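Sequence in, structure out. Go.
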Amino acid sequence: MKTFLYDLRFAFRMLTKNLGFTSIAVLSLALGIGSCTAVFSLVNAVLLSSLPVPNPHELRVLEWSGGGARFSVSGSCTEESPGRFIGNAVSFPIYENLRERCAEQADVFCYTDLRMITGRAQNQSFAANGMVVSGNFFSTLGAKPLLGQLFEPDDREALNARGVVISYPWLERHFGLNANVVGESILLQGHSFTILGVLPSGFPGIHPGDACEFYVSMDALPQVAPHFANTDANHWWVQLMARKKPGVNDSQFQAAFDVAFANAADEQLTEPKMKIINGAAGPISQKNFYRKPLLLLLGVVGVVILIACANLAGLSLARGAVRQHEFAIRTAIGAGRWRLVRQVLTESLLLSILGGGLGIVFALWGKDVISRLMAGTSEGLHYDASLDLRVLFFTLVVMVFTAVLSGLLPAIRAARVDPLSGMKVRSVLGAMRMRSGRLLVIAQVALSLLLLVGAGLYVRTIVNIVDINPGFRMDNILLLQVSPGNAGYEQEKRTAYYDQAQTELAAIPGVQSAAITQFALLGGWMSGGGFFTLPDNPPEDGARPKAHKLTVSESFFETMNVPIKIGRPFTITDVEGAPKSIIVNETFVNSYLKDVHPIGQTLRSNEVDWNIIGVCSDAKYTDIKGEIPPTVYYTFRQSDLHQGYFALRTALPPSGISAAARKAMAAVDPNVPIVSMITQKQVRDKRIAQEWMFAILCSSLAFLAVLLSCIGLYGLMAYNVARRTSEIGVRMALGATRRQIAWPILRSAISMSVVGVLIGGVCALALTRLIRSQLYGVEPHDPITMTLSVITILLVAILAAWIPARRAAKVDPMDALRCE
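Output:
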């Protein structure tokens, strides 16, 4: 230990003597380690962390698989193989059956999400996301209340009292952290509920990334979610989790649930089988959405770490060559090879510790930036990405890794010094060939080109997406989301509400026009209109046509600048009781009515005939990157619109009328809150948040990688020039021109860069195919991106070598020879 402390003090003195080298090394490592720590903190929060409940390893998520589904599903249901599906929701009777039959193996609980529930507390209306849970939800998870009490199994009195359990953020937002909130009443969907308890601030529910603000029991279904029924065996809507009981192994658990589910679902599924998934981190659907981007990003910062290590190793080799005289003397007076290796590795470890400490500071800022970029919002992801012990341990491992990787080669070189030749004067030694340094520079160039190509592909992707013409004008559009259906409005009253609110909003100074739309365009939501028939023009192949549907107001086409090509737009006379009217887009006509005049044609859906009154130009409303499908537009006056958006086209920036819009909506009905207020461009940008994230982060990391490579190349060239000063002086004294002195240095740098470019280009061609699914409008082997990346690398290499080459060309022969 005493020897290690001596080595540490000596390493500190040596590093402080060369502050330029130390500063560059520490900053390089800090940027690399900091970016790696920031990304891993999100990987840890999203993919690795367990739910903060007792014994999370005992939790299991229950899903199912089977064929021949004969029921409706309100949940995830995808085709696993032809004719066989997997899903995450079952009927309430099946839940009760599984809970009873498998009681010896596990405690089963159920839940379902509630979205945009209208609430009112403290004389303020708001929209919130909640969850309907079974009575044993909290007890099985092991959650404890901060205030009051939680639902308990078989506590029918509390359940029937319309109790609600609220989250800590809800308590803070709507009740000002009032400790006496238990027992107060709030309105949900217009029905009164009593606050039973408050959850602790650290309780994220079973969806850590999706904030749940309140919980109600299954007995509250008629009030908060009347479309769900706990007696209908053909409506599958509850999701299941279970806590495995002590002593039950996985095989027993799987067998018990397979038998129970087969008996419960044999009338709705063929070959029903349960899928048991580790539930320590909760349901994984949202985690899977971020899995690939986070792992890919972790790989990118891993490459940056490798470049930083290669850069530091190259600089250390050059610095070690200068210290040969020191190492030779220490060897001559008795220092063993292991002592020299240990000393160099100690210096490398000290640099890594300093770089890691500064990197943690960078990570504290960087993780929030990455989180906001991934979420596409200023709030970022709703995960706890704090630097916990796991993240700090990871950072420590990275620090040790960088210390060994960057210091091992210089340490081995120091241990091989010959004390006899090492103590000779510099003129006798001549210039070293520095093969290891050249290999490190080549590796840095190759890795930098790989990152630069990837960044170029992402930048071109985002440029291509932004340049897409969606078929409507996105500028100066403000969107207000409302849900009058959740506020207790029936269909006729909803229509009147939409009509009145649209009129009030259109009258705001600065608003050019106002319209209603079922969804925010380009927000990712769509309504499949289902199959329909064209009685007068059935398809020749007998196929059933299908189209997307969108419910709008008569001013929608004018507000969004979607022209009507043929026929007429909707009018206020297209009301319930009048002939059913629809407008279709050009793709619909080209797909199903190509050879006939579309106006006046009939579309039959759900035994109702709709008349085509107009044809509009194509416009995207679901996905900015997808193809435009056949689309049918319905008027809200003849369709049931449970929730929707008001789209306001403004003469000024939309933010200037947000306050007036809120006031106008409150004047219509203060009990219908504005769920969200966002511009149309923000909707588009949020939809392509991951593309923005990769374009920004990969560009930043590629710039860092190129900068580190530039430093490495500059350091190697500068060191060679310094070592060859006497040789250069002799050559210039013998008549060598400045060009003859500078060109070999530039040529050496260019040759190393060309080799690195060739290696990096091959790697880029092989690896960029992995990100094909994330690109748009550009191929992984895009020649333009590859060419520009190669030119950039070569120009940077020439610039890095030009400075020491210029310095060599200006060497004064007399001064150089006088030094010797």
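Check: The first strand starts at residue 59 and ends at 67. Residues 136 and 488 are 29 Å apart (CA to CA).
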